[in-house]
Amino acid sequence: MSPDHHRKFGEATLVVASHNPGKVNEIAELLAPFRVAVLSAPELKLPEPVETGLSFATNAELKARSAAQSGLPALADDSGLVVSALGGEPGINSARWAGPGKDFGKAMQRVEDALKDQAQRGNTDRRAHFACVLALAWPDGHVESFGGVVRGKLVWPPRGDKGFGYDPMFVPDGHEVTFGEMAPDEKHKISHRANAFRKMVDACFRA
Q1: What is the model's pLDDT at position 3?
Q2: CATH of the domain at 166
Q3: Can 113 be counted among the known catalytic residues?
Q4: pLDDT digits (tens, 9 = 90+) for 53-67
């Protein structure tokens, strides 16, 4: 789609279609300069739709469309950790690796165990990237989608208690600290979500 044909966002309120408090807070912080009131899916008692898509883009759009049925525009994110040595896993299954209790300590251990198994077979590649697709949906069904990535490597043991998900084991390229150790404002400059967000802002929030 040509940049000239992106729909501009002019509404005062936006639903962040997520039940992950860390993700909601991060998106709310990114939206703060635009003076848009942010509501989370739980605040509106919106259900979590089943993510049946086979890509980040499909799942993000599915979640955004579902939340926009509330009558408000909705922003959904689908993101995950893509590990080279694991053939792209956990990828779109990143949250599922944390189990029903969403225990990302166990999810990180599962990634590390899989990497150790690969290392025993001679594959010591610890490169990974976070991928994100943001989908912005309006109640009339219109959707705009934007993608972003940040590349880095995985370390063990996990470090830091900032961020969420797999952040404590991910060191972005050009840095020595993990996302779990990085101040939020620093992470917001370089993260996969921030990269996707910048594209969305340029297309839909700036005149």
Answers
A1: 47
A2: 3.90.950.10
A3: no
A4: 899 999 999 999 999
